[in-house]
Amino acid sequence: MEDNYQDDSSARTTRRSYVKLLGALGLGGATTGTAALSSQGVGTAGAQPSSAAGRITVSDSGTVIDDDASQLDFGDALSVVEAGDDAVRVQGDSNPSIVDVRDDLGVEPETDDLWAAIEDHYLSFAPTERNHCYTIPAGTWDVATDNVHFDAHEFLGIVGDPFAVLKVTDQDVDRMMTVGSLDASLPHAQRTVMRDLQIDIRGDYDTGIARWYTYRYGHMENISMRGRRDKFNSQYGGDRHTILVNGVRSSATNVISSCYLNNGDTKYDRSTIVGHAIPFSSDIYNHGTNYWEGCQVSDYIDNGIYVSGDDGRNIITGCHVRNCAGAGIRIGPNDYVQGCQITITEQPGYPWSGLWLENGGGQLVSQLLVKNSVKKNTEIIRLTQDGPARLTDIHITDEGTDGRAIRVDDNDDAPTIFDACTITDRSSPSTSDYAVYVSSSNVTFNDCEFDIETQSDTDRHGVFVTNSGDGIDRLTLDTCTIDPDGASLRLAETGADHTVESSFFEGLVMSDPETTLSRVLWVGNRHRGETIFRGERSQWQGDFNFGFEI
């Protein structure tokens, strides 16, 4: 190995020798020494003159790696290509040209239209040559151009360096940008990055930030909005979507990380929430995978995270939604919610739910915390999806009034399963009602605990099995505890093949007079309250076990 590059300091650096030298320097390790190379950069290593024998000079937009750097990190995707007789090049998957908007485009903060300057530069290149990262130095920069179309590029980056404010200064700016297009054909928006920016719409302005239709990869990080949206303002109301992200191919991946939309939308007196601004969303054009991680949203009227209408996949992790009408988190087929929190401390002014599963099946929800302290018109968790769903470690604390904690009204043929879920109900209802409504078949509660103790004179009951007439089959309660003010369980519909095992009922267990219950397995349960079945029981399996009166 030493024969390749140490004996003759004037010899040409070959491709093979350079790769070996990278190995000797610790390629892939942590970057150390006096300088670092961006994982999105291009490093060029040229053969040095005799006075610089043994040195490697790697440049990234003018940055030089000094001799005393012991390790270099070129990122995950590398290729080594010939760059001439005396040099080789290490190239990452994304190697944009860096464009400083002040130094290279001549834009001055709070004076020039930054958005127009970026648009002009972007459009001056052919789509396959658009490979730029626009860096925006710290400060406040004006945006006065509506809806710049970044329709096709190899790479587009718009990043604060280290953080910048983009202030909307024209009422005609309804949407800041559209990335890509609905058409998945090439050329397209291959890779797009936007990060470390705050959008300022204070004053008489309103705008949506972005509609993205990505082809390969999108990354939005640390984007926030200063000022309250005013979508229905007749003079300057902006786009309905604040941040909309779609992957136009099934292989597209988008990451939306640590974005904050906490100033909400302006409420208008209308019969419906529809038409108010939507904060985070994907829609029917998303066929890829979106990762929503560590995002926050507060005080929006038309849902919080609204991703239920597409056939792609949305993974929502570590997000927090506060005081949103519609639904705090609204998911569709194959979507996944993990480690999120939904908080309702102020009445949003329209009917609301915390979590809503709809459209298709395959939804997974785990480690969700919901806390409510206001009046609810409907339910905190609503399930109306058309296929199977599983909810694990769901914890609801309800200190509000009226409404329900959970309502299941989904496809009868597909299973809906609750595992290790709890309801701590300390509400003050004005009307006697049940915390949980089961309005469809094939619903299972495993290892769940419902602790209900109202703070008013009105009773609050446990689980109500009803859909106003049609039969409900295959309800399963396994190792559950239902401790209400009034009834623990009421079977108000005819049904078959229910399974109730090893469960603890502190209150009344009953069926309505017109019900027929058949082939029910009822074993190993403990009843503290009365057990009164007024309806017909046929082919009943098991008995009432412990602590019952009849």
Automatic annotation (TrEMBL):
This is Right handed beta helix region. PROSITE patterns: TAT (PS51318). InterPro entries: Pectin_lyas_fold, Pectin_lyase_fold/virulence, TAT_signal. SUPFAM superfamilies: Pectin lyase-like (SSF51126).
